[in-house]
Design a protein that fits this description.
The protein has 246 residues and is an alpha/beta fold. The protein folds into two domains: 19-164, Rossmann fold, CATH 3.40.50.300; 170-245, Helicase, Ruva Protein, domain 3 (Orthogonal Bundle). The chain contains eleven helices and five strands. The protein has a five-stranded parallel β-sheet with strand order 2-3-4-1-5, sandwiched between helices. Residues 238-246 have low confidence and may be disordered.
């Protein structure tokens, strides 16, 4: 999993819906292995889980460059594990993962239903926590819906912290839109901002995606940044989505 250059703590917009997750992630990044271990962050897609995971990665690399940080998606973890088994290098692979001081796993919900990988996953998490190596997981479902966490890892997560991120409120949506527009060099009217926010459904990723489209349209097509043009863009995006579903 390659770090996303724009994801860091400085540009994470904090609101009531994500404050606990942000503070827990920052605490972990400042003192890896000492607090909130393991840390489990969960929410629906587009609310900032991956942003926080990348922010932890970058902060530790910057402030504690001597620590080994292993950041991976659950998909990548499964593929690497299967390859290690097929090449009879599972012990070497385990040692390489467990040698990390910090283990960051994105999209842990993907492991649901994969019995062997769940068993290996439990072993890795439990060993890391026992050695006081920091573990952070993200998922799109709460821990109650992950059988692997509900059973054998429950005691470990009871000692750590589970933090959810809810859809962001209107005030936070506005801050996200203003921040993203400013970073993109765009000047958006209040009317335009309100339209973008009203169609975001509390999804920060959707807001950023619309503003990215506006930036590209303005730069490449001399797109007008007015309400009529944005409504047209929104209509085209919906038509494309429906075409993909049909």
């Amino acid at each position: 999993m390659q770090p996303v250059s724009e994801y860091n703590f400085d540009n994470f917009i904090i609101g009531r819906s994500n404050q606990l997750a942000f503070l827990a992630a920052k605490d972990v990044a400042d003192k890896p292995g000492e607090t909130n271990n393991p840390l489990f962050i969960y929410s629906k897609s587009g609310l900032g889980k991956t942003h926080l995971l990348n922010a932890i990665y970058k902060h530790i690399h910057k402030t504690s460059p001597d620590l080994a940080v292993f950041m991976v998606t659950a998909d990548e973890l499964v593929l690497k594990m299967i390859n290690a088994i097929e090449t009879k290098q599972i012990d070497e692979w385990r040692r390489s993962v467990l040698s990390s001081d910090v283990l960051l796993i994105d999209d842990a919900h993907i492991l649901v239903g994969k019995e062997f990988t769940q068993a290996e996953f439990v072993y890795l998490i439990r060993t890391c926590v026992k050695r006081k190596h920091q573990v952070v997981l993200t998922a799109s479902v709460d821990p109650e819906k992950l059988p692997v966490l509900e059973s054998s890892l429950r005691s470990d997560f009871d000692r750590g912290l589970c933090a959810d991120i809810q859809p962001i409120d209107i005030a936070t949506c506005r801050l996200v839109a203003i921040d993203k527009a400013a970073r993109s060099g765009l000047s958006l009217s209040d009317e335009l901002l309100e339209y973008i926010i009203s169609h975001s459904n509390g999804d920060a990723r959707r807001i950023k995606g619309v503003i990215n489209s506006l930036y590209a349209g303005k730069k490449l097509l001399n797109f007008n940044l007015d309400l009529t043009s944005v409504k047209c863009l929104h209509s085209q995006r919906l038509q494309t989505k429906f075409a993909q579903l049909s």
